[in-house]
Design brief:
Layout: H1 41-51, H2 54-71, E1 75-77, H3 81-100, H4 117-130, H5 135-142, E2 155-156, E3 163-164, H6 180-192, E4 201-203, E5 209-210, E6 215-216, E7 237-239, H7 240-253, E8 280-281, H8 282-305, E9 310-314, H9 318-321, H10 331-344, E10 353-357, H11 358-379, E11 381-383, E12 389-391, E13 394-395, H12 414-422, H13 428-441, E14 443-444, E15 449-450, E16 479-480, H14 481-493, H15 497-512, H16 514-517, E17 524-527, E18 533-536, H17 541-553, E19 556-559, E20 562-565, E21 579-586, E22 589-596, E23 608-613, E24 616-617, E25 625-626, H18 628-632, E26 639-646
Parallel strand pairs: 22-26
Antiparallel strand pairs: 1-21, 2-3, 4-7, 5-6, 8-13, 9-10, 11-12, 14-15, 16-17, 17-18, 19-20, 20-25, 21-22, 23-24, 23-26
Helix pairs in contact: 3-17, 4-5, 4-6, 4-17, 7-8, 8-11, 8-12, 12-14, 14-15, 14-17
The protein binds 1-O-phosphono-alpha-D-glucopyranose.
1-O-phosphono-alpha-D-glucopyranose (G1P) binds next to α4.
Length: 647
């Protein structure tokens, strides 16, 4: 093709062709291809002269490998060394994602645009494990993207904390967005013990969108600042806790006709985008409920550890708090509360701050969480004629329940199961039923495990474009790594270790079979109906996988800054010396944590008997916790051994 030729819709490739040569037995031929850049042609020439030699090339390659290996600071050792190696590559994935963008970006057929809000927060999960140093500031900056009505900016600038008003004026509210910042913040606080973070101040984002995407603010235009102002024209700053409360409390009242949180533009599943009038997401209602409960727990820590009795909040928030719990049962009343609040902060807010007693606040949000979970348990648990039971996850744009049915007609989605399990909405028995139903309707070993949904055999235009994708592709029935891994995470959390392991193991085993997955080591965005891994390397699910293997499988957790060990390794994961180990950083110290299971006990049968820190027996009041103060005392430069004896 000449330089004026034009093709559209294909991926670009630059190719080099060498002359044909014939190699005799035992002979070899080396080609070195160098990509270089510089200011002038001479720069390129000198680089070429310097490195276009086989020996220099080899040493540069080693240097490059070393550079990246040094960046990957987590490694694992279990009986399955291929799994350990695969996970090593997974650790590398979040770095590639930060350089190249999300899984949909480099591929022509998967939409366009920058990194999204959800990705922004979830990418921090991996950073917290691998490179926590700058995370605090990053989190703080990101909170500046939240609007005072609980929604958030959707166009993210290039600079950290830069959020841009949408010039095209496309309103889209993803109802899950308010839930992710808390998950990341909670993890950060658990690891660091930095509860003070919740009282740091930050601005709010302001643009044309008001009333949670339903209306425009006629008094605002693009020339004005992108920050929420008070009636006096001052920029308003509220604490991080206030930001989180606004996100969760507004959601609580933003319900559809079944008193479940409205789906709006979509939730985690971007392709559920055609039910903005009447759609509802049970799945994310469950997650918000759990978040509310966890916010209450952190409030207790603020109260007890920081000795703070009252919290300062913007006065408008009282509207969302002083509601009689009986009124939670009424959709109309809820919507009225929400409307009242949103109208109050439509253009500006008063800027007045009130003091709310911690205990009152805790009681209020706990009440909301409890109500929401009970509502889901009571109304969304479904059973079919084949005697399988699980949670309905959605309502469509005709207000109809999405899941149910029997046999080949069964409609089931994984998302609603994941979050009801993760959030403790499902009780133990329900978790057991869900696992059975998932195994029956969603599990398919030939494509790597648990699919996102069954085949609806319908282009369901009253729910989303996902039903326009062929079944077994993308968000329609593929094994979508992100949700599959969150399923594993939820199962581990609830103590269903064997089942959680199965989810990860089937995904890993599949990816590891190159002949069918056709991918290098690592986790792809999804696995298509032919078993091929798609959009490899750039998926946010790598962060969740690292987190799950680290904090659940190996059970290495932060406990308000202390190191808590709660291994959930199966007997078959210990090597021939009865050991399983992890290398990582905690509280800025390199640690090698080794679990020793000499009695060959299965998970559930073993517990921690003794801990040795650099060969000295470690004693703490809580035998599975190593205090941060003791870790900080350790020498900075070297790796420290933590030996954990199980029995
Ligand atoms: C992508 C998006 C993510 C979205 C998911 C499902 O997943 O980046 O925000 O929730 O599709 O629609 P990822 O690239 O993280 O695998």
């Amino acid at each position: 093709m000449n330089s004026n030729g034009k093709f559209e819709g294909y991926e670009a490739i630059g190719a080099i062709r060498f002359n044909d040569i014939i190699i005799e037995p035992g002979q070899s031929k080396t080609y070195i291809v160098v990509m270089a850049f510089g200011e002038s042609k001479r720069d390129i020439e000198s680089i070429s002269n310097d490195v276009l030699k086989e020996t220099d090339f080899d040493s540069l390659l080693e240097e490059t490998k070393l550079y990246w290996n040094n960046k990957i600071n987590i490694s694992y050792k279990t009986k399955d060394s291929e799994f350990d190696n695969w996970m090593y590559w997974v650790n590398f994935q979040p770095m590639l994602r930060r350089i190249y963008g999300c899984s949909f970006l480099p591929h022509h057929d998967y939409g366009k645009g920058g990194r999204g809000w959800r990705d922004l927060w979830q990418d921090c999960l991996a950073l917290l494990a691998m490179d926590p140093e700058n995370v605090r500031q990053m989190l703080l900056d990101n909170f500046g993207g939240i609007r005072f009505d609980g929604t958030n900016a959707t166009i993210i600038g290039n600079k950290q904390g830069e959020f841009i008003a949408d010039r095209n004026n496309i309103t889209r509210v993803w109802m899950d967005h308010g839930a992710w910042p808390f998950l990341t913040t909670k993890l950060y606080i658990e690891q660091s013990g930095d509860i003070e973070f919740l009282l740091e101040k930050q601005l709010y984002f302001k643009d044309l969108q008001v009333i949670r995407g339903e209306e425009k603010d006629n008094l605002w235009n693009l020339e004005q600042v992108n920050n929420q102002l008070t009636e006096d024209g001052e920029t308003y700053e509220g604490n991080i806790l206030e930001h989180l409360l606004i996100q969760h409390l507004t959601e609580f009242y933003d319900v559809g006709e079944h008193n479940v949180l409205k789906l709006h533009g979509a939730d985690w599943n971007d392709a559920l985008d055609m039910a903005s009038e009447r759609g509802e997401s049970v799945a994310f209602s469950a997650l918000y409920a759990e978040n509310l409960e966890d916010i209450a727990e952190l409030l207790k820590v603020i109260k007890d550890k920081m000795n703070i009795k009252n919290i300062q909040l913007a006065e408008e928030i009282q509207i969302l708090l002083n509601v009689n719990t009986v009124e939670y049962n009424s959709v109309d009343k809820k919507l009225k509360v929400l409307k009242k609040y949103c109208e109050k902060c439509k253009h500006s807010i008063t800027g007045k701050v009130i003091e709310i007693d911690c205990d009152t606040l805790i009681e209020d949000i706990k009440g909301k969480a409890k109500w929401l979970k009970e509502h889901i348990r009571k109304n969304e648990w479904i059973s079919n004629e084949e005697e399988f039971s699980w949670f309905n996850g959605y309502y469509d744009n005709n207000g109809r329940r999405v899941e149910g049915g029997t046999g080949n007609e069964t409609r089931m989605m994984l998302t609603g199961q994941v979050f009801t399990i993760m959030s403790n909405t499902a009780n133990e028995e329900q978790v057991r039923s869900i696992i059975k139903a998932c195994d029956n309707y969603l599990y398919d070993e030939s494509v790597g495990g648990y699919k996102l949904n069954t085949d609806f055999n319908e282009v369901k235009t009253d729910l989303g474009r996902m039903f326009g994708f062929a079944y077994g592709h993308k968000e329609n029935g593929a094994v979508f790594s992100h949700m599959a891994i969150m399923y594993a995470n939820a199962l581990y959390k609830r103590g269903f270790v064997e089942e959680g392991f199965k989810v990860i193991d089937s995904l890993y085993s599949h990816c590891n079979k190159f002949e069918i997955s056709r991918i290098y080591p690592g986790v792809p965005e999804y696995i298509n109906s032919r078993g091929r891994g798609m959009y490899h390397y750039l998926t946010g699910s790598a962060s969740w996988l690292i987190l799950t293997v680290l904090a659940e499988m190996f059970g290495v957790k932060g406990d308000m800054g202390d190191l808590k060990l709660e291994p959930k390794l199966l007997l078959k994961q210990f090597d021939e010396n009865y050991k399983a180990a992890i290398n990582m950083t905690f509280a800025e110290r390199r640690v090698h944590i080794e679990y020793i299971n000499e009695a060959s006990k299965e998970f559930n049968e073993y517990s921690i008997k003794e801990i040795y820190l650099d060969n000295n027996k470690y004693n703490s009041e809580n035998y599975s916790v190593i205090y941060k103060k003791d870790i900080i005392l350790l020498d900075e430069g070297k790796t420290h051994n933590i030996k954990v004896i199980l029995e």
